[in-house]
Amino acid sequence: MIPQLIAGARKILFKFGSNTLADRSGRINDDFLAEFARQGAELMRGGKQIVLVSSGAQVAGLSTMDKWARKRDLHYRQALCAVGQVKLMDAWERAFAPQGIHIAQILLTRDDFSDHTRTLHMRNTLFTLVDEGIVPVINENDTVSVEEIKIGDNDTLAAQSAILWSADLLVLFSDIEGLYDKNPKEDPTAKLVDRVRDIAAVKVSVRTGGTSSFGTGGIVTKLDAAELAMSYGIPMILAHGGKPRALEALSAGTQRGTVFLA
Ligand code: ADP
After folding, report:
1. Spacing, Cα 177 to ligand 1 middle (Å)
2. Ligand 1 atom at minimal distance to the Cα of residue 19
3. pTM of the entire predicted model
4. Comparing C-alpha atoms, which of 83, 241, 152 is closest to residue 160?
5. Which of 10, 27, 36 is closest to 250 using CA atoms?
6. Could you state, in order of their start, the residue ranges of all structural domains in the chain?
7. Out of 3.60.150.10, 3.90.550.10, 3.40.1160.10, 3.30.530.20, which CATH number does the structure's domain 2-260 have?
8. Where does 115-254 have alpha helices with state H?
9. What is the pLDDT of residues 74-101, one digit of tens each?
10. Which numbered atom of ligand 1 lies nearest the CA of 182?
């Protein structure tokens, strides 16, 4: 099912969680980004269009301003993301450059999605970039996003962006193989769910405690993202981004994941 979904989609939005982008020491994993860029470029050469939603500003900021690691103050956290966002985009730029592909930064807030004029401009900019063969990299604009006006997690941002761009497929790359019937990091007997048709039913049956070390959303926001995307007829795949050549393996059917499709 996953190979068919990828093969059949022309416009694919990929979202990367912080843990997928960072290595064990908490730095942005350049090798991983380069490997994804190679696979993404291959898809583009095959006629597909891609947009990325990338977390990781805070992680990238922390590896630059490590003395701020213990600062919990909101303004320091926002400042950290402002420092890290540059590093993050620099890393994506270096990853795509050998493929001869330019990237573009798009920073969005929750308000942007509820304002008709703004969504129109965002949509037009996205279409223009993609039509020109540029890869847009979207993230939440942390400088202006305080708790009350935050989208808050990039899973939701990814689903909203997929809808805005009218994507054919949303792929969330996380540090987990897919959705399990319980948190596999707490219970080794947890079983992978191959396909979800009904999010409401899954929310009742699946146990969803805990997030990984850098993650903000956890599995609940991934289910919310799937629900939102599915309500617009966009299927979603949740898969492990950290496996070797994950995108190719998913396309070839050699890597498992969870498909959300009604
Ligand atoms: P990301 O940084 O990719 O957004 P998160 O850390 O926010 O990832 O969320 C993924 C984590 O959710 C997994 O690493 C896992 O520990 C946790 N989790 C909790 N319940 C489940 C479940 N039922 N199935 C899969 N993962 C789960």
Report:
1. 9
2. 2
3. 0.95
4. 152
5. 36
6. 2-260
7. 3.40.1160.10
8. 116-131, 154-165, 199-205, 218-231, 246-252
9. 899 899 999 999 999 999 999 999 999 9
10. 23
